[in-house]
Amino acid sequence: MTQPSERALVPFVSVDHMMQFIHLIGVEPMLRELADYIEADFRRWESFDKTPRVASHSEVGVIELMPTSDGEAYGFKYVNGHPKNTKEGLQTVTAFGLLADVATGYPTLLTEMTLLTAMRTAATSAMVAKYLAPKGADTMAMIGNGAQSEFQTLAMKAVCGLKTVRLYDIDPAATEKCARNLAGQGVNVVKCRTAEEAIEGAQIITTCTADKQYATILTDNMVGAGVHINAIGGDCPGKTELHRDILLRSDIFVEYPPQTRIEGEIQQLDPDHPVIEMWQVITGAAQGRTSDRQITLFDSVGFAIEDFSALRYVRDRIRGTGLYQELDMLADPDDPRDLFGMLLRSKTASAA
């Protein structure tokens, strides 16, 4: 059988290789580096193709494609969100992604993105908090202690200097899991019995729950002046976490308004309710935190450019590590007009 040419081979990063890659760099250094890549792409936000993700909703979850391009590289992520999966011993979110060369259309990277999405989501939260959280913020309430909670905590530590995390989940086993995983990570961990207890003394409040419904994780009276709310749960039509009155008291920051108005907390508000795009804060075109009493709310739903940043990061940093496989993904005949001849010759080669 003839061997594939170099052009036919695409680097593939498996889950096992991704875990080795993260350990090679270190969790916190990689979170910092990812945050830098994401911030750099937010600074050139206007150079990207942008579209709300293509979503296929069902009664039990959602399957989505998230594409974008900067004109030189094209990337997309396949991702699902099925809250009921945990009861069946499955992940709520799984994902994979691809990067390709715009000039040829040839893929240049295929990678798992379940772990990578957790890392990039946390890195995005921390990058935004760097701009919006109160000065000197060192305590975070983490409400929802599922698969994202440790990543969020360590990203806030790595990028923003977080010292204490106060944990709460309606499932005490989730809180125990999170506290156990964060032991020895250099963060003071406080396990709380209620959401109200968790937010005591916290300057940053992160909500990350997965029920596919309108929910009220935070009520208006729970949120005092001067805090930064990092609302990363929700993320689909008909699912929210915050009481509407909190939104009305907050300055709201988003990634891409056409997507956030469909999926984010602001789906509860009028379609023309004012929001601030985060790329404008980063470039100085808009203001972020302006006072000590201001409530800032990052209505995060995740956007394709953040995944593009993560794919770009892996492509750049994986070189020389050996932590990937070369997949024979692309038909590459000697004569590009003779694909059928390539097929015929393969039969002859197999018989030899």
From TrEMBL:
Alphabetized Gene3D superfamilies for the sequence: NAD(P)-binding Rossmann-like Domain, ornithine cyclodeaminase, domain 1
SUPFAM superfamilies noted in UniProt: NAD(P)-binding Rossmann-fold domains
Pfam families according to UniProt: OCD_Mu_crystall
InterPro entries according to UniProt: NAD(P)-bd_dom_sf, ODC_Mu_crystall, ODC_N
Name assigned to this protein: Ornithine cyclodeaminase
Organism: Jhaorihella thermophila
Organismal lineage: Bacteria, Pseudomonadati, Pseudomonadota, Alphaproteobacteria, Rhodobacterales
